[in-house]
Amino acid sequence: MFPCRRRQFFQGTVDIDAETLNTLESELPGGDDSLFLLKSYLLRLPCKEQRKQVVLKATERWCGMEVETWLLLATVAVLAWVYSRYRHSYWSYRGVPSPPTLPFLGHIHKSFFVNRTLWEYNQENYIAFYNASKCGLYEWFTPLLVIWDPELIKNVFVKDFNYFTDQRDFTGLKTGSKRDEMVLEMLSLKNGAEWKSLRAIMTPTFTSGKIKRMFSLVSDKADALVSFSMKQAAGNSYVDMKNNFERFTMDTIASCAFGIECNSLIDKNAEFPRKAEIVFKISIQTMLKIALCKIMPRLFKLTGLSINPPETDFFIDVVKQTIADRETGKKRGDFLDLLLEARDQSDNLSSKLVMNDISMVAQCLLFIVGGYETTASLLAFSCFLLAKHEDQQQRLREELRGMVAEHGGITYQGIMEAKLLDACLQETLRLYPPAVILERACTKTYKLPDTDLTLKPGDLVQVPIWSIHHDPRHWPDPEVFIPDRFLPENKGNIQPFTHLPFGVGPRNCVAMRFALLEAKVALSKLLLEAELNAAPGHEEVALETANGLLRPKEGVILVLKQCSCSASLPPEVVERGSQGDRDRQLPFSHKQEKQTHTSLSTMGIEVWLLIATVVLLVVAYFTRRRTYWSSRGVPSPPATPIIGHFHKGIFVSKRLWEFFDENYTKFYNSMMFGLYEFNTPALVTWDTEIMRHVFIKDSDHFIDRRDVNMRTGQKRDEVMSEMLSIKKGAEWKSLRSIMTPTFTSGKIKSMFPLVCDKADALVKFSKKQAAGGSCVDMKENFGAYTLDTIASCAFGIECNSLEDNNGEFTAKVKVFFKGGLGTLFKGIFFYWMPRLFKLLNLSLNPPEVDFFIDVVEQAIVSRKAGMKRGDFLDLLIEARDQPDNPNSNHVMTDLAMVSQSVLFIIAGYDTTASLLANSSFLLAKNKVHQQRLRNELQQMIAEHGKITYQGIMEAKFLDACLQESLRLYPPATMIERLCTKSYRLPGTDLIMKPGNLVQFPTWSIHHDPNNWPDPEAFIPDRFMPENKGNIKPFTHLPFGMGPRNCIAMRFALMEAKVALSKLLLEVELEVAPGHEEMVLETVNGLLRPKEGVMLLLKPIKEE
């Protein structure tokens, strides 16, 4: 038996009585197939009308159930969006300005997914909200306040530090793994009392006296750096000093923190640097494990996973063994000795509990995190700046020579007294701060001074260091390298809290003295040995952020030349501080800007972090796919994660041509750029030679347009799928060959009387509206005219939309062309989940399409009965029935015929109306051209007696005016083709693959001054016969180009010429006051006036 719900459905909806239902059930093989049951029942009904009524009722019931499901999904989506908007109103409710957010993501896509340009995003907001001194951001739903007022920075980081003692919380990453627990013991990740105790123990480690004890270790590594670099310079033209400085800092840290001599300058594959590189590389895999740990912590622990790689165990073992050796009495004067000494001498009785063995390993690792990359980058940037400013380099070298002469060598005291040396490093840190932001977490409710803003516990506060360091209000000539800013006599001019390379306040970088010592020693020794020059072709340095730290992107390539004075230095120039020769430390506390993200509030954390994991996986996939164009040497504008540039072409389609034009200008010399629509690469080019090959010469490689799948099972969608413009390959070729004869000059001429009748009605109606001096919306009138013309020429219907704007035909067309986000989202839904879409019984096109289907089907039946009107349908039937094409009946089916009639509206309704509106507007603004055209038309009347087909075809200036209007306002702002076979673009090494899209920015090409002198001016003479030879081929593309150009362009121009001619012979056009400019928009991909074209129509006085 069927389930009760199924029985109720068929008995209550289809009116099957119980006895019949039982009989039918017994006949079914499987028993639970509703459609089979319905079919069996229908076969028993004798009357066709009865069957139709049963199907309609059943369909209505089924659709009702599916619509309920769909509306439930839509309701959930709307509620989620409302919730997102509510959470993202946190700052606006408090009067804090905020840049636009993305639903759910907030601004995290700017600070995480595209973190390589994080400082640029901060700079945008810094400029946009500068006078407000702050702005609000969101990481998912977590509010984050960005401040840059020095007084506010002082309060948050110093004066009221007890309200902002913490960094963001990372305790959610406790996995139970020993190596993960060790990492979480780092000072920079500690908060509250634990941080306070640990900082108190570590601070004495970095006093001037303690750092001085490691001076000899640093000096030895600096000597090795100079020796290695000079050896490289002797055998090579250029030296990558970024690479060398990284090896130097690694050797120094290994020696000063772990007591290990890894010699990475000589041996790149040494175990210590190799394992360190793996440990401190934050990969996508690491980020996914972090997200999984936050979403399902219990499962994460049960699986025994660890966030940190197994190589971390190497450092744990090394440091444990080293600690055991030191506790037996061995001393080296390195970082471990200092930590042990600080722990054991602390007045805090619990210090040994705080600084346990795991914590000690963690601080040694922090020594690498804070100092490896940051100090290497500081040295690389400093050398680059000094190489570009040879006067400052020589000035610093003279100071260092004086220091050596005074102290007998490079000593700790000497470099501490070198004022210009310090000033050069400080100015480098200003131009290239190690971390581009500082961050604190609010721990207690706090009211910002001189504001009404109250911060709550958990709110994050950030300071945009890069922007402050480059603010001309704080630093005159901020982009210029001026070390003198930091000389003692000028330091008083520096506004407090505007120089923050090491942070500020109690949580500043604990090891900043050591970092500067290491950099000063290395830079001093290098400059005394070598003269630095930027290598040819490397005069600029590209930047990136990696693991939250700023660094040179592609190395710092320099030329090193031996200094003539270097040989005179004494052999012993280093002051020995203690035995041993190890390395150095540099834990910058800016590792707090790591890319590990905020732990969300406890409520809903698993849900939101599950979403985060999915997003991360998708982003990782799309990021990898997003290298398609860059790997082929094609420039590309910045893409949004996942969607690429899709939002530019769809969600903000009203400004689509501006997006293309912006990149047309940006990449003009490249003649192309690459885009991504989600995962699909699209090449945009305006190279006329490429266009010639794509459109004409090699069009067989680009015969198709993008694939538009509308096979939903709905009849109205099937009709739309049969349109010529959507067809591909052999199907398109066959259909085009049948339709082409329909639009020959002779066939179009046969529809000329129909068009003239509608143009007469247009003129009569417009003059009636203009009576009494009223302004007329000619965009609206031209829309009604083209609709009447198409209805008559395509469907054989007289809809009279000029007189009856609310008639059925007119109303259905307006709904159909309204489009909207609903249509867009249904298209996306069907693209991603076609089976579910079909199960929900949805349609891509609105029900109004059914009206056109019924109308045309009835018209076809009438024509088959012998009725003829000489319209589009007659011409299609005639083309189909030609005996020389035996397959035409299979291609041009009744369904295809309906489809082409609907296409006739889509292609001609809005486009021709916009052409006429734009042309009238331009002629109204250019009275000289209007009168010149009127004179030509009057001459045509004098010659032919009236407006005739031959007469308007011979009117050269009429055609020129329309062509110039089409240049200024092309119907489509871009043209597209799909590559069908692998193809090498001429004049390039670029290979297009099947499925690649090629787009041509029509608007930009039409407005390019290199193609069209004075491109924004209305100059019809460009298109006069005597001037057409001056037009560059493939720079005028209003109807496309090649075999897939607009098949009905002759009809469109004839329709426009007739209407414009009749109108100008009756009235003078003037722009209505207050409507002197025209605003544009794109709807359904077509360009049109946005707010109407308001004109004054003045009757022509008869002479």
Task: Kindly list the characteristics that best describe this protein.
1103 residues, alpha+beta, four-stranded mixed beta sheet, 52% helix, 8% strand, elongated, disordered N terminus, Cyt_P450_CS, metal-binding, transmembrane, iron
| Unreliable segments of 5+ consecutive residues | 1-14, 24-33, 59-66, 566-607
Shape: elongated
Structural class: alpha+beta
Q: Give the helix tally.
A: 46
**Computed Rg:** 38 Å
Q: Helix fraction?
A: 40-55%
Distance between the termini: 90 Å
| Main sheet strand line-up | 1-2-7-4
- Percent strand equals 5-15%
Number of DSSP strand runs: 22
Estimate the mean pLDDT confidence. Answer: 81
The major β-sheet equals: 4 strands, mixed
Molecular structure report:
This protein has 1103 residues and is an alpha+beta fold. The protein is built from 46 helices and 22 strands. It has a four-stranded mixed sheet. A four-stranded mixed sheet has the order 12-13-18-15. α12 (215-235) runs antiparallel to α13 and α41 runs parallel beside α46.
Quick description:
The protein is an alpha+beta fold.
Present the secondary structure layout.
Layout: H1 4-13, H2 18-27, H3 34-44, H4 48-87, H5 90-93, H6 108-113, H7 118-128, E1 134-139, E2 142-147, H8 150-159, H9 178-184, H10 192-202, H11 208-213, H12 215-235, E3 239-240, H13 241-258, H14 271-279, H15 284-295, H16 297-302, H17 312-327, H18 335-345, H19 351-354, H20 357-388, H21 390-407, H22 412-417, H23 419-431, E4 437-441, E5 446-447, E6 454-455, E7 460-464, H24 465-469, H25 512-529, E8 530-534, E9 543-546, E10 549-552, E11 557-562, H26 605-625, H27 646-649, H28 656-666, E12 672-677, E13 680-685, H29 688-697, H30 715-721, H31 729-739, H32 745-750, H33 752-770, E14 775-777, H34 778-795, H35 808-818, H36 821-832, H37 834-839, H38 848-864, H39 872-880, H40 888-891, H41 894-925, H42 927-944, H43 949-954, H44 956-968, E15 975-978, E16 983-984, E17 991-992, E18 997-1000, H45 1002-1006, H46 1049-1066, E19 1067-1071, E20 1080-1083, E21 1086-1089, E22 1094-1099
Parallel strand pairs: 2-7, 13-18
Antiparallel strand pairs: 1-2, 3-11, 4-7, 5-6, 8-11, 9-10, 12-13, 14-22, 15-18, 16-17, 19-22, 20-21
Helix pairs in contact: 9-20, 12-13, 12-25, 13-20, 15-26, 17-20, 20-23, 20-25, 30-41, 33-34, 33-46, 34-41, 38-41, 41-44, 41-46
